[in-house]
Design goal:
Helix 6 packs antiparallel against helix 7 (212-225). Strand 2 (25-30) and strand 3 form a beta hairpin. It is globular and about 50 Å long. The chain is built from 7 helices and 12 strands. It is of the alpha+beta class and 255 residues long.
Amino acid sequence: MNNVALSFESFGVSHRGCVRELNEDSYLVEPETGLWVVADGMGGHDAGEVASASIVDHLATIGIASSAPDLRARFEDRLSRANAEIRRISESRGITIGSTVAALLAMDGRFACLWAGDSRVYLIRNASISQISKDHTEVQELLDRGMISAAEALTWPRRNVITHAVGVSNEIVIDFQQGEIMPGDIFVLSTDGLTAHVSDAEIEAAAVSATPQAACENLLQTVLARGGTDNVTIVLVKIGDGRHGARPDPSRAVG
């Protein structure tokens, strides 16, 4: 990260919600290495938690990269290791387990968003929110083909069936988008437990009106007040203008 030019303030929260007994989500907030991650595990009792935790545990070992390409390479290496570990666990238990992943990488004034599954990355820039990631779901494929409408997608019976995840096959299918970071940018990473209850406009309103910690906590309370039908995890990253030699403050990047 070009710390002379930009600084970060970030925070993360995770909750099992109002219905589920376990929280199978995991997340990572690592501003020092330029990495933020959410992961939503799947596979039944205990198994989903193991899968998402494997992803976060491996990505936490990335360390300080020497360049943006090095950071991307380290990310892909750790994710590959997590995929192999999850596959081994699946085989030992005789079940299929896996996890979504959505990640933000930031270095040298640029960002890359990488994802598999339906966990999302949003960018709020100039008071406008856009979804950077694109869901890997059956319903999204139907939308892309023009087979159903956006209104039908909201209630489609298989709308939560994902088409890509880490740990379900030997090869990982990951999409990515990249671009330049601008002062004032806000990135929001979340599992689908947030977007099941909160609109994009509400995410934007919460993110721009408060600190990352307050915004995460406010969004979480909104989800819980509306029934919290799934685990919910939110990570929010605000980009500041760190000129005059300022560096990211690790004490403000907690979760």
